[in-house]
TrEMBL record:
TPR repeats: 147-180
Location(s) in or outside the cell: Nucleus
Main location: nucleus
Gene Ontology annotations for the cellular component aspect, listed alphabetically: nucleus
UniProt keyword annotation of Isomerase present: no
Entries under Pfam families matching the protein: TPR_8 (PF13181)
Domain of life: Eukaryota
PANTHER family according to UniProt: PROTEIN POLLENLESS 3-LIKE 2, PROTEIN SULFUR DEFICIENCY-INDUCED 1
Organism: Genlisea aurea
Disulfide bond found in the keyword field: no
Protein name (record): Uncharacterized protein
Amino acid sequence: EKEPPNFHVIHKVPSGDGPYVRAKHAQLVEKDPEAAIVWFWKAINSGDRVDSALKDMALVMKQMNRSEEAIEAVKSFRCLCPRNSQESLDNVLIDLYKKCGKVDEQIALLKHKLKLIYYGEAFNGKPTKTARSHGKKFQVSVKQETARVLGNLGWAYMQKSNFIGAEVVYRKAQMIDPDANKALNLSQCLINQGRFQEADAFLGQVLEQKLPGSQDQKSASRARELAARLDWRCPSP
């Protein structure tokens, strides 16, 4: 059965009937991830939009709890992808490492990304890049990306109970691009070190809505949870 004529437009898929398009049809219309993976492999092996096929296949595999397989696929076939797609493949790998609990690998790759930023090689040398979230496109600056990567590195250090390392990168991230989420992460990091007064200072910035994102429901809820932890740790005299 042929797809409706607007399939390519709705799902932002290139026109044609090649293996990549067939994979996207299986993924998005037929909702058949197994078939999609078969077609993604065919696309990769035939050189049909290899970078997109590899990234999309990794996402489907992740959704099917086949993240280990996705990691091996990305690592093995990224050499077939153009240079300007390597950064986004790094992001895919970081996400997969996080899913699999491979924290050491995640830390190494995040440090590599910071190195690229430091040497001006992030975004392929451009000051901004176009990102997509929930179907919407937006511009991300190098400054914002630096803070994001530092924040992710802080989270990874937290998983290793390296609270001092986490504090250093969280503070740096908050200096570069302050927001509620990073303040809450820093507050939690300080609580874990038993530095409750310092934690309370960062938490207060969120509770008083002094930072971007403070009104976000998730941040507000987390702030209340951390405040309760602090109240329990430091009861009023």
